[in-house]
Design a protein that fits this description.
single chain, 299 residues, 11 helices
Length: 299
């Protein structure tokens, strides 16, 4: 543990280890990803994809290593026992900070298949990481505004097509599809702007979840509903690197896949769309109440 050092020094060490870990593993990822690109046949994908996942898991394990070295975090985690590494999961979580991703990877690495995130198109150009996400088949979404779509109706449905194409790949080998239903990180300003009916959450968006369930509902063993609480406040990434993440509370519950919804037409059937929104609303009410309980217990 290096937490006895000044926070700035801890932050610099953590940043260096984070960067070195990425720079070591990303070139290895790219070698195999390029081979898969050069020989685009299903047999090659089935051979190389598991290797890419093992490399990514080793990368995540390296991140967990420097986290243990630089952090003095108290973890309160329930619900990750008995998960199946060789199955498919749809994972949903509230979203407050970039730290959420490291928390999720740290807890789920080698317990369930690698988490695959849907990313904004702009993140493709992030140095080093963009190449890694591309190599691991993370789908990139454009997420056009409604105003843009009115001017360019031909672009409507592009993200849905991207989601379906990604899910076709995910169905080949065990995968965990990660979905932040809020679509963005929680902030007080966003919460007020939305006039969210939930105390601790932004309004959820059911469309992405509906597409994933429609494309892969028969594959998913369960929906893993994850709730992350930071009793001392959601940390900024630099504060986390400086070793200032004191406590993390995580609760995971496995929910059955709602097959009656998964088989419905979210885009074309208003009744199905309403049923999805009601299901998600109840999920969010339960999560909001759980967050309130966990915060009160941690005070």
């Amino acid at each position: 543990m290096l937490n006895f050092l000044p926070p700035l020094v801890v932050g610099l060490i953590a940043s260096l280890l984070l960067a070195l870990n990425a720079l070591f593993w990303v070139p290895i990822l790219l070698i195999f990803a390029l081979l898969k690109l050069i020989i685009p046949i299903k047999k090659m994908r089935l051979l190389i994809d598991p290797l890419l996942l093992r490399i990514a898991e080793a990368w995540i394990a390296g991140n967990s290593g420097w986290m243990r070295l630089t952090q003095r975090t108290r973890w309160d985690v329930q619900g990750i026992e008995g998960l199946n590494y060789r199955s498919w999961y749809l994972v949903n979580c509230n979203h407050q900070s970039w730290v959420d991703i490291l928390v999720l990877q740290h807890l789920f690495n080698r317990r369930i298949p690698l988490l695959k995130f849907f990313l904004k198109q702009q993140l493709m150009w992030v140095p080093v990481m963009g190449l890694a996400w591309w190599a691991l088949d993370f789908p990139f979404m454009r997420r056009h505004s409604e105003e843009f779509l009115k001017k360019h109706p031909e672009m409507r449905g592009k993200d849905q097509a991207t989601t379906r194409q990604a899910c076709e790949k995910f169905a080949l080998i065990p995968t965990s599809v990660m979905n932040f239903l809020e679509g963005t990180r929680f902030t007080t300003a966003k919460h007020q702007r939305q006039k969210s009916p939930y105390k601790h959450l932004l309004k959820p968006k059911a469309g992405g979840l509906a597409l994933a369930l429609n494309a892969m509902g028969d594959k998913f063993q369960a929906i893993l509903d994850v709730t992350i609480v930071y009793p001392d406040g959601a940390p900024q990434f630099w504060q986390f690197l400086k070793g200032r993440l004191q406590r993390v509370v995580v609760r995971v519950r496995a929910l059955p896949v709602p097959q009656q919804l998964a088989q419905g037409d979210y885009a074309g059937d208003a009744a199905v769309r309403e049923a999805y929104q009601q299901w998600v609303h109840q999920l969010w009410l339960d999560k909001d109440a759980q967050i309130e309980t966990l915060l009160s217990a941690s005070a």
